[in-house]
Amino acid sequence: MSVEVEIDVELLKREIKKTYASVSQEPAKDFVFPTGRPWAEDLGYPEELANVPDTAVESFAGVANPFTLGRLALGERVLDLGCGAGTDSLVAAQMVGPDGHVTGIDMTLEMLARARTAAEELGAENVEFVEGEIEHLPFGDASVDVVISNGVIDLVPDKDAVFAEIFRVLRSGGRMQLADVTIQNPVSEEGRRNDKL
Fold this sequence. Notes:
- By secondary structure, the chain is of the alpha/beta class.
- It has one domain (9-184): Vaccinia Virus protein VP39 (Rossmann fold).
- Helix content is 34%, strand content 17%.
- The chain has helices at residues 9-25, 37-42, 54-57, 87-96, 109-122, 159-169, 189-193, and strands at residues 77-81, 101-106, 127-131, 144-150, 170-179.
- It has a five-stranded parallel β-sheet.
- It is globular and about 50 Å long.
């Protein structure tokens, strides 16, 4: 049985921005999901995590470790979808080295401000952070070698648009290293009515 649910996409985006702005501004607050350096360490992040400033890592809110799918190579061009405070982007920037480049994109201005500050603190000159939505990427076709993302695609209602954009920006032979969550059971009627869940 299929259930059609009308989603107010703009309301959803506002709630997501509000939640992640709070993670950025109050990183020590308790959220319904784990956050911070101890969580990233529990996920088995690579050694580069130790160099990432607390400015970024204290607002880390990923769901898993996309680097378990493989290390990035020197010189690669990487796109981090929903980069948040920049933890994954800054790990990636260290992996790809000065000849590589990492671009993080996020729609939450407060997270982007943290990411930019953390990049300056790390002295990472091969990374940039861009405001935008991952279902409408402001990048050229075949412009990246690797797309990484951590706990973000599940938040976007139009997943087909996200994956079409990933396919468009990846060069031939490029790869995705995605960490995310899925549901195995239908969302309850109460869950569909409650936009605060």
